[in-house]
Amino acid sequence: MPQVAISIGGRSFDVACQEGEEHFLQTAAKMLDEEAQHISSQVGRMPEARMLLMAGLMLADKTASLEEKITSHDSRVARLQARIDELEVAGTSAHAPAEPVEVPVIPSGLADALDQIATRAEAIANEVEGRAENA
Predict the structure, then answer these.
(1) Alpha helix locations (H) across 1-135?
(2) Does any domain span residue 133?
(3) Which structural domain, as residue segments, surrounds residue 82?
């Protein structure tokens, strides 16, 4: 079983851990040391047990706060997913897929332009008929 030397609050400790967990132990010790340094800078020197207790409680408080946020987030995500599922079910069961409807789109002004062309065509036809009668 590997032994890892760690330092917390300026004090050294030898701690045993499982093979391959040395990195995790060092990371956790670093977090605990940062809390202990913060406490020591505010309070000053204190007994080892009290320093470790306070640093542990500070980390536990941060962890609890993060877990609460995660739980709240997960709950919100679950409610939103349930609402999405509800809307999808309502959308597929309440309405059969609609048949496509083709609606001709006539650009604005096209009807007036066609009317003007028809009027000109009639005028030209009348003129041609008049010339044919005079010829």
Answers:
(1) 22-43, 48-94, 110-134
(2) no
(3) 3-94
Are 6 and 31 in contact, with CB atoms under 8 Å apart? no
Indicate whether 40 belongs to any domain.
yes
Would 22 be classed as within a structural domain? yes
Question: Cα(60)–Cα(38) distance, rounded to whole angstroms?
Answer: 15
The whole-model pTM stands at: 0.51
Q: Residues 55-109: pLDDT tens digits?
A: 999 999 999 988 888 888 888 888 899 999 888 887 665 555 667 777 777 777 8
Residue 8 lies in a domain: yes
What is the tally of structural domains in the chain? 1
- Pull the structure tokens for residue 28: 């956790």
The string over 37-54, giving b where at least 16 C-beta atoms fall within 10 Å of a residue's C-beta and e elsewhere, is: eebbeeeeeeeeeebbeb
